[in-house]
Design brief:
This protein has 820 residues and is mainly β. Helices cover 14% and strands 41% of the residues.
Length: 820
């Protein structure tokens, strides 16, 4: 036993909680079933391939194509990107063909022709066998009264069962191999389920997948009892166990929050059920876990960790099973990779993670334990590669256990512990920069108001750090003064968790100790409680300071600030033994020196894929820590990386999937550093383009050079032609700075029905490529989207257009050669 993590933040005075993992108690193969989302995809390209593929999605739920319920998220339309990125199956919410919520009740005779149309379209779609029909959505609440007094219940039950049989057989008549899911109630109701299962068995209309919803904070307490009761019903009625998909789960306060998500995912994974997060806000961001189209937040990293579990899950005993907002976890053991992983979170303070029955035949007498944290960064707040907090070589105790102490855990964070064989040598010590957090509600507030957000009793409130934030900062004198203390003089990264309700870019004035104020600009957010994160750099002297954030040109809500010491350019080491693999690479743990998790041995036909984060579009230094040269694939380009020699590669803001191959090489890590240099990047303002067919240059103080290209598209003749001069032929990343705020309000109080726009991009004589641009929340917020293109040396024409609909407004474009 050894103390791996003496402190992560402030120490707790209470005795540590204990979470126990038993590596000898297998629960069966990892399913990754709990990573889905309702309307997680809105279009082909939203989210991006690089954001989707790492999550290894097993199911999603979308509407039938042409459905009026929402303006996007059509099942067949998004299936191309879903399946392209390894997705499993798509649930089709058939009643989302209707426009109103609750669905307009026009009678079963109105619904049946719609069922026919949807079924014919799905049955003829590519990969039709990977679609699941869900004919009714929350029928106990919509069209049928299945939760009332017994007499009413029996009438409504019989009506629903008759309609279920009718629709079921209608689907099967068109698609005999259809997989049908249901009954899909708002919650778990055993009275109805007993009757439903009895009827379905007798009438031969049994669903292939059992579905219901878990949409209250109480589900974290009650789901296990629901699951156990359902399985007992199956046994009692002589029904073979059905696959279960909880196709809507979690509340607003849970989404994006790693410490909340681990509580939900652990209970679904241990029961081997599938589950899709609810759709409370906007489509196309995996229920609040993908920022813009390609940028991870803390929740995304938790799901990336979840997707990295391999082998079997093993039994985890939390300190308080089936209790809301307590420490929970899940764990896996992969004997072929010789790895054990534990994901945990949901509680603040100190914890001891006790891993029992560590097999000596797999791990030997010592293990390397690596601890990392995925913090909460808001729904729209970017989150860099999770910080490694500790990496220590630990002797396995005589009783076969290893204890990993975690101190000062944060309630909203999730933590990952990876155990690998110890090997020879010692891991390099981990340097964790000094950091401190300060809640806005605990600061000195002038002309503002403290609000309480998502809580157990208000589970559909939005998440806020400490459940509170400071809003109504709308007076000329409004400000929040944070008293901070830093250990030494130097540069500090200031992260501001905020909400911008102004409908456009907003500002505040930042001053230190009453000095001259600097302007902080905040991009728009979906609403004032849909938290985002703004990063600012500060020079501070050692000691105590007052950081003031005062009202600027619009109203901004403040939640928390984080100060972190800047120790140099951002760096991250991506360990090869934790990369996604294909082929049959082997794992070598003979040495625990350096990054400490051993080496991945690649041979011909093997591949390792690393998920590399970039804070912005630009050039970064990429170094392969390998025994021999390897080949790296990025944006459709490949390059040889020699051991220890840096490559200058152009990365897109957010996640970048870098694929590595080799003839034979033992790879320890892929190391990435830098701030995203733009030296050598080609840049062209909108004013340099030749416009035709009604496209025009529009003045704007928010555009980089004071103007953008507007009224582009909606006609074959409306185009914007950029002439770009490439110093060398090769693969480039075309970065488009764009904005648009196209919406189709479908009348839902809790859904923001943003839509995407597309542009056809033509480079030289190549075929046009249709590219999807997500809504930027306002017409004055400019985001970036990267598109790999091939340029020849010298002059190249890059044309934007859209013959049938409006393209986004374009501020400027940049082009960076992938190999700089």
């Amino acid at each position: 036993m050894a103390a791996l993590l003496p402190t992560v933040g402030s120490a707790s005075a209470a005795d540590p909680q204990r979470l126990t993992v038993d590596l000898a108690a297998s629960e069966g193969p990892v399913t990754l079933g709990a990573n889905g989302a309702l309307y997680g995809l809105s279009d082909d390209g939203v989210p991006s391939d690089a954001a989707l593929e790492p999550l290894k999605l097993t199911s999603i739920s979308q509407k039938p194509d042409g459905g009026a319920q929402h303006p996007n998220g059509d099942a067949i339309a998004v299936s191309k990107s879903f399946f392209r990125n390894g997705g499993g199956e798509i649930n089709v919410m058939m009643q989302d063909i209707y426009a109103k919520w609750p669905y307009e009740d026009l009678g079963i005779d109105d619904y049946l022709p719609k069922v026919d149309k949807i079924t014919k379209e799905i049955a003829s779609a590519p990969n039709s066998d990977r679609f699941v029909y869900i004919p009714f959505n929350e029928p106990d609440f919509i069209w049928y009264k299945l939760n009332g007094p017994q007499a009413e219940y029996e009438v409504e039950r019989d009506r629903f069962l008759a309609h279920w049989k009718l629709v079921y057989n209608r689907i099967r008549a068109i698609d005999p191999d259809a997989r049908i899911a249901g009954p899909n109630e708002t919650g778990y109701y055993p009275r109805f389920l007993r009757d439903f299962l009895t009827f379905a068995k007798r009438e031969n209309v049994m669903p292939q997948i059992m579905t219901w919803h878990e949409l209250s904070s109480g589900s974290l307490r009650d789901f296990q009892a629901h699951y156990d009761n359902y399985r007992s019903l199956e046994r009692e009625l002589g029904i073979d166990p059905l696959k279960i998909n909880i196709d809507e789960y979690a509340n607003r306060r849970d989404l994006s929050v790693p410490g909340q998500l681990v509580q939900w995912v652990s209970m679904f994974e241990r029961n081997k059920v599938y589950a899709n997060m609810a759709y409370w806000d906007a489509a196309g961001n995996m229920s609040g876990h993908v920022v813009r189209s390609n940028i991870p937040n803390g929740g995304w990293w938790f799901f990336r960790w979840y997707a990295g579990l391999t082998g079997d899950t093993v039994k985890v005993a939390p300190p308080q099973p089936n209790t809301i907002d307590t420490l929970q976890g899940l764990a896996s053991l992969d004997t072929s990779r010789r790895q054990a992983q534990v994901l945990l979170g949901g509680s603040a303070g100190d914890s001891d993670v006790v891993v029992k029955n560590v097999p000596r035949s797999v791990f030997g007498r010592t293990v390397t334990a690596t601890v990392a944290e995925a913090a909460w960064s808001g729904y729209e707040g970017q989150h860099a590669t999770p910080q490694v907090l500790a990496r220590t070589k630990v002797k396995v105790a005589d009783d076969g256990s290893v204890t990993v102490p975690l101190r000062g855990m944060r309630k909203m964070s999730a933590y990952r512990i990876v155990l690998t064989p110890g090997g020879a040598g010692s891991p390099s010590p981990v340097s964790v920069p000094w950091s401190a957090s300060y809640e806005a509600e605990e600061a000195a507030i002038t002309d503002g108001k403290v609000y309480t957000q998502g809580t157990v009793s208000n589970a559909n409130g939005y998440a806020a750090s400490g459940t509170k934030d400071v809003g109504s900062l709308n007076q000329a004198t409004s400000k929040v003064d944070f008293t901070v203390s830093v250990p030494k003089s130097g540069t500090y990264d200031l992260a501001i968790l905020y909400g911008n309700q102004s409908g456009g870019p907003a500002t505040q004035k930042l001053s230190v100790d009453g000095g001259a104020p600097a302007t902080v600009s905040y991009p728009s957010t979906e609403n004032w409680t849909y938290r985002a994160k703004k990063d600012v750099s500060l020079r501070l002297s050692a000691g105590t300071h007052v950081l003031s954030l005062a009202k600027g040109d619009a109203e901004v809500t403040l939640d928390r600030i984080d100060l972190t010491a800047r120790t140099g350019p951002p760096t991250a080491s991506y360990e090869a033994t934790l990369a996604d693999i294909s082929g049959r690479p082997s794992y070598d743990y003979s040495s625990s020196a350096g990054t400490g998790t051993g080496a991945l041995v690649l041979r011909s036909g093997d591949q390792a894929v690393f998920d590399v984060y970039a804070p912005r579009d630009g050039y970064f230094s990429v170094v392969s820590r390998a025994s021999a040269p390897v080949r790296l694939g990025l944006h459709g380009e490949t390059v040889t990386a020699r051991p220890g020699q840096p490559l200058r590669l152009y990365l897109e803001a957010g996640n970048n999937r870098i694929a590595m191959t080799a003839g034979r090489a033992a790879v320890r890590s892929l190391d990435v550093s830098g701030d995203g240099s733009t030296a050598g990047v080609l840049s062209y303002e909108g004013a340099s383009a030749v416009l035709a067919g009604g496209a025009k240059l529009v003045d704007s103080v928010h555009a980089s050079a004071g103007s953008y290209i507007g009224s582009l598209g909606n006609s074959p003749s409306s185009t914007a032609d950029f002439t770009v001069t490439a110093p060398r032929s090769g693969r480039y990343l075309l970065v488009v700075h764009y904005a648009h705020n196209d919406r189709r309000d479908n009348g839902h109080a809790y859904n923001t029905d943003i839509v995407s726009r597309t542009a056809d991009i033509t480079v030289g004589g190549a075929a046009p490529r249709k590219v999807t641009f997500k809504n930027t929340w306002s017409w004055d917020d400019y985001w970036t989207l990267g598109v790999p293109v091939d340029l020849k040396k010298g002059s190249n024409k890059v044309t934007f257009g859209n013959a049938t609909a409006w393209a986004p407004n374009i501020d400027r474009i940049e082009l960076g050669r992938v190999i700089g």
